[in-house]
Specification:
By secondary structure, the chain is mainly α. The protein contains 11 helices and 2 strands; from the N terminus they run αααααααααααββ. The chain is flat, with a radius of gyration of 28 Å.
Length: 297
């Protein structure tokens, strides 16, 4: 994927110069260039201001969850949250108004995030605790990638995604095996330790097994008998082995994807001096079809 193609993925509807239909009014086009665009100075400043508002609104929500701050500044924060929500609501409807690809925006990743970032304030009338869901606005800071034009790295992102996709069956088998192992350890510890030592039931023992195998080790439930401690030690050792497995699976798939990508790139930049074929390996010095030298550009 080229940088130009990658940049075209912004908001899933960033157009080329000729992709916006002629029916778009001058006002819509002006708003579109500011809100969706990032090449113009106004568009860049709009995105910077938007990100500042997003960070400020998330900070207000986080601060409001602290009892002392809520007690002293609750009214001010409440007004700020409504101010931010009204601004984001206006921005959301301006995005819908300015683009001629309304359906594409509404169902795009950013379109859904934009909607979810304003709904909690209105839902708070019915469900007061929903106001804290406003922290979802932090996802909108992903737009900073558009400003910094980091979409040029979308190729590397695609490599990682392809590696995870190729490894999904292996990861599923691995996770299933881990679940079986955790259940076995949990049931075993319930039999060995029992309710007297905190292992009141098998689900609680499975919780202990998860905490132990993942090497978190909260310490809220601990084995007391020598046999239970031996099983716990064995579970800890298994935990270290388990951590390495998904790393190896994903790492191997990622390496294969990198090699495939390199071969595709190399096939374009290398040509046989004899038969003019371009399908050559990365380290090929001679053509595998005719034996002539491979010329690299």
């Amino acid at each position: 994927m080229t940088e130009k193609q990658a940049e075209g993925l912004s908001d899933n509807l960033q157009p080329n110069d000729d992709s916006q239909p002629s029916k778009q009014s001058p006002l819509q086009k002006a708003i579109f260039d500011i809100i969706f665009g990032y090449e113009s100075r106004a568009g860049r400043w709009f995105d910077i201001a938007l990100i500042a508002l997003i960070l400020s609104s998330v900070t207000a929500v986080l601060a409001d969850s602290v009892a002392s701050i809520h007690l002293n500044y609750g009214t001010i924060i409440y007004r700020l949250k409504w101010t931010f929500t009204l601004i984001f609501t206006l921005e959301y409807f301006l995005r819908i108004y300015s683009t001629t690809r309304k359906r594409a925006y509404l169902f795009s990743f950013y379109g859904i995030i934009d909607l979810c970032s304003i709904l909690p304030t209105y839902l708070a009338f019915i469900f007061p605790s929903a106001a804290y869901l406003l922290v979802i606005r932090i996802l909108r800071v992903l737009r900073i990638f558009r400003i910094l034009k980091l979409f040029r790295y979308i190729g590397e992102t695609n490599l990682l995604y392809a590696a995870l996709l190729q490894a999904r069956r292996k990861i599923f088998v691995f996770l299933f095996s881990v679940i079986v192992l955790i259940v076995i350890f949990g049931a075993l510890m319930f039999i060995i330790e029992g309710p007297a030592n905190g292992f009141i039931n098998i689900p609680a023992s499975i919780y202990w097994a998860i905490v132990t195998i993942t090497t978190v080790g909260y310490g809220d439930i601990t084995p007391q008998t020598p046999l239970g401690q031996f099983v716990a030690a064995f579970a800890m050792i298994c935990g270290y082995a388990i951590i390495a497995v998904p790393t190896g699976i994903i790492g191997a798939e990622l390496m294969q994807q990198v090699q495939r990508s390199g071969q595709r790139t190399n096939s374009v930049n290398s040509t046989c001096s004899g038969c003019q074929s371009t399908n050559h390996d990365l380290d090929a010095r001679f053509c595998k079809f005719c034996g002539k030298d491979v010329i690299r550009s």
